[in-house]
Amino acid sequence: xxxxxxxxxxxxxxxxxxxxxxxxxxxxxxxxxxxxxxxxxxxxxxxxxxxxxxxxxxxxxxxxxxxxxxxxxxxxxxxxxxxxxxxxxxxxxxxxxxxxxxxxxxxxxxxxxxxxxxxxxxxxxxxxxxxxxxxxxxxxxxxxxxxxxxxxxxxxxxxxxxxxxxxxxxxxxxxxxxxxxxxxxxxxxxxxxxxxxxxxxxxxxxxxxxxxxxxxxxxxxxxxxxxxxxxxxxxxxxxxxxxxxxxxxxxxxxxxxxxxxxxxxxxxxxxxxxxx
Length: 276
Ligand SMILES: Nc1ncnc2c1ncn2[C@@H]1O[C@H](COP(=O)(O)OP(=O)(O)OP(=O)(O)O)[C@@H](O)[C@H]1O
Prior knowledge:
GO terms for molecular function: ATP binding. Keywords: ATP-binding, Nucleotide-binding, Transport. Residues 23-265 form the ABC transporter domain. Residues 1-23, 88-109 are annotated as: Disordered. The protein is an alpha/beta fold. The protein has two domains: 20-110 and 189-275, Rossmann fold; 123-183, no CATH class. The chain contains seven helices and ten strands. It has a six-stranded mixed sheet, sandwiched between helices. Strands 2-1-4-5 form a four-stranded antiparallel sheet, with helices on one face. The longest helix is centred in the last third of the chain and has 17 residues, at 197-213. It is globular. The protein binds adenosine-5'-triphosphate. Adenosine-5'-triphosphate binds next to strand 2 and helix 1.
């Protein structure tokens, strides 16, 4: 394991942060009805995975294996048909039919920060207002928006509208919105795959800076083995239908990491090989 920790500042006896489970999927099953054939597709069957406190787990795998579904299950956007999902020891969802919304909970689940492939900003609000809205809707002080935008290098663009920003700046704003709420869990769904290579590289470095400043717990879905090796503490390779963990890699490198570090490259090569 690396030398980073969860950022917990309490003087409690040294805890092993990456050994405490945070997100636990236990025997999860998930089926969909295929829009094309009308048949049931079992994406997950008896699937288990644990993400530990302070750990960033990257999920890679061929298209259609269920990476985004996995993220949606953890976000509470999809409900498992069977099994159980717990976040920080609280049940997020179990396989029983329950109320919709926050996946069968009373809606007071843990605070999530989510970054999607597209920034999903509200075009009629300034960047600052977009971030403020995330803060107020989670009961936080909107004044935190300025710092969150400064943290991603957007201080001087705070009062502009998303439409006048570049794609990279918009995605920076989306990252600011996700991190502004001080999330317990960060969910990243191919966050940089819509950007050109240079911009994606800069955003990865930014994400690493944010993570190094304050390590968090996270799940990153990506098609990019370099991104997985560079950012994650652990990489899982999903394969098959129903999906199973075909391979798993611990990325035991200290942060900050350099994308061109040969050790990152070695892990990238291993992941690529596992992807076949
Ligand atoms: N809401 C839905 N309704 C019906 N089928 C769905 C739904 N969501 C996902 N699926 C199906 O579940 C399977 C897994 O989809 P998912 O998007 O999780 O895969 P993925 O690994 O993220 O793929 P990609 O890398 O292409 O984004 C696919 O066959 C998809 O069509």
